[in-house]
Amino acid sequence: MAIARRQLIDAETTPYYHVMSRCVRRAFLCGIDKLTGRDFSHRRQWVEDKLNELIPIFAIDLAAYAIMSNHYHLVLRVDSDLARSWSMDEVFEQYSNLHACSTVVERYLNGAVLTTAELFLVQEYENEYRERLSSISWFMKVLNQHIAVKANREDNCTGKFWESRFKSQALLDEAALLTCMAYVDLNPIRAGMADRPEQSDFTSIQTRLDRNKRVPANSMKLLLGFIKLKAEYGDKHIPLAESAYIELVDWTGRCLRDGNKGSIPPHLAPILERINLTEQDWLRHTRYFEARFKRVAGSWDSIKQTAAKLKRNWFQGKPPKPIPN
């Protein structure tokens, strides 16, 4: 049974979501077309550039991304507090960076004297625009529409470029967030396109590594930051030290490349203990995240609570079994 998108993406349930969009025509529309030999890799830069443009406009943070040859993954965080903090004028200013505001809003911004009915209409537009600016669905619509128009113009054709609906997964807890981020960052390694994170082009892990090395790059400037101190899940920082996350992804990448061989380094083991995952669970999730979880991802308890909230008996998935005390 289908579930409405507004139920699947609900910032009151969790601010974090994994979204994925895939090309609908021949494979490799963002890479090398095997049929014609044409190289479309520059389109991956289009996606990265547009993300850089949209993140400061929306009340949405980018935690991780991977832009592949025929699809892309994003891990997004809805910043509801930021959206609520904007004044009416700030909402209109932000929205005008995406689309032209309505005529009555333009008149309001230009200082025109408005009737009571017009002022009511301005408030209605404020509510509508504020909601859109914190909507992952609107974010994805603007991003995908921009890329589709450019690609169709370049191909001199019309029609759909992306599948009609992007896929989304609610990340219900810290373990789901961190494993999903690693899953996204390790896409090129699992696909055999790279051997190490630093070679994984158009990924957030490569961007973080380059930034730490002070390597000049035309890449993402606005990735959500990590925090060294303990943070609550859902705060405006990823609850882990960036250096620890990078080491964890590097070790995981080597395990995936070498067939899950090798034990986790002792100084990284407490991370998995804290999020209640065994080493085996971590490696399974970072290899098969989309296969193990469908609409929601998290522990048994968090999935059951979300199912009850949405009045469902269950959600398809294979969360890790609780570790005995």
List keywords for this structure.
325 residues, alpha+beta, Alpha-Beta Plaits, 2 domains, globular
Give the gist of this structure:
The chain is α+β, with helices and mostly antiparallel strands and 325 residues long.
Q: How many structural domains are formed by the residues?
A: 2
Specify the overall morphology: globular
Low-pLDDT ranges: none
Find the CATH superfamily of the largest domain. Transposase IS200-like
Q: How many strands, what sense, and barrel or not for the largest sheet?
A: 5 strands, mixed
Rounded average pLDDT: 87
Work out the radius of gyration: 21 Å
Q: How many angstroms does the end-to-end distance come to?
A: 37 Å
The helical percent reads: 40-55%
CATH-defined architecture of the largest domain: 2-Layer Sandwich
Q: Assess the beta-strand content as a share of residues.
A: 5-15%
**Helix and strand run:** HEHEEHHHHHEHHHHHHEH
Widest sheet, order of strands: 2-3-1-4-5
How many strands in all? 5
Subunit organisation of the chains? single chain
Enumerate how many helices there are, as a single number.
14
Structural class: alpha+beta
| CATH fold-type name of the largest domain | Alpha-Beta Plaits
Task: Indicate the CATH class of the largest domain.
Answer: Alpha Beta
